[in-house]
Design goal:
Length: 120
């Protein structure tokens, strides 16, 4: 059995940059004009949604990337893994997206500024 090669210093540097970039989150929700984002936010304000439902509501085929975009814009959008039995009787752990209380405050503040005529 061969041992995997050790990462070079250059590869390690890129990995650290990626980790740092991913750990930096904007302090506030920067807003969006993207129709998919707006549909997803409206649906998540109403109720938590599993990935498949968020795909359908937002009109996207990759809601995890859509959620990642919202996270890059300043929302947390936590994903809670729930216990579920699929149609074949197997145990599975699908994720359900929801807005945190802080997300709701950020969205409501952004919507209020937007209605006042200012773009946040």
């Amino acid at each position: 059995m061969r041992k995997a090669p050790e990462p070079t210093k250059v590869q390690g540097a890129f990995q650290n940059q990626d980790q740092q970039r991913d750990s930096i989150k904007p302090a506030r929700f920067l807003g969006t004009d993207n129709p998919r984002h707006l549909r997803a936010i409206a649906a998540l304000l109403a109720r938590p949604l599993p990935r498949e439902n968020l795909d359908s509501v937002a009109g996207a085929s990759n809601s995890p990337e859509l959620v990642a975009e919202l996270r890059r814009r300043g929302l947390e959008v936590p994903c809670e893994r729930i216990h579920f039995i699929d149609r074949d009787g197997r145990d599975c752990r699908p994720g359900v997206y929801h807005l945190s209380d802080a997300d709701r405050r950020k969205v409501h503040q952004w919507q209020a500024k937007r209605q006042q005529g200012g773009r946040a």
